[in-house]
Specification:
Length: about 130
């Protein structure tokens, strides 16, 4: 998942994907995104920090415009984008992603860390 990479890592991976694809090939990504495109940098930083604390992974999502720029800089033509809400805590999604044995583990972790997750929604720098 590109969202878990720093900017240089994202660029290297997308560049390598472009190099490996045959002419006319399709490269599809499913990534975390920030909205709207004109978010100020401090808001992006707060969101990224809170997300990293909540999911225990240093995720670095971009806006749609930033994802498009990254892909175009590597040589891709972006022909389609779509948006969906995150469904991290929906049972059906968790079962699909984590499986029957992994979903209960995810629920235990969420409930054990629930106070930390709620606290991350009120980042002191968010105002």
């Amino acid at each position: 998942m590109l969202s878990m990479q720093g900017q240089s890592g994202k660029s290297r991976i997308v560049g390598e994907a472009f190099r490996l694809l045959r002419p006319g090939g399709t490269y599809s990504i499913h990534e975390l995104g920030l909205h709207p495109d004109d978010l100020d940098q401090s808001t992006k930083d707060v969101i990224r920090t809170d997300l990293a604390r909540a999911i225990k992974v240093n995720a670095r999502p971009l806006t749609e415009a930033e994802w498009k720029e990254l892909l175009e800089q590597a040589g891709f033509d972006v022909v389609w984008t779509a948006h969906s809400p995150m469904a991290l805590l929906k049972l059906g999604r968790n079962l699909s992603d984590e499986g029957v044995t992994g979903e209960p583990q995810l629920q235990r972790r969420f409930h054990a860390e629930g106070e930390g997750l709620a606290a991350s929604e009120h980042h002191p720098d968010a105002g």
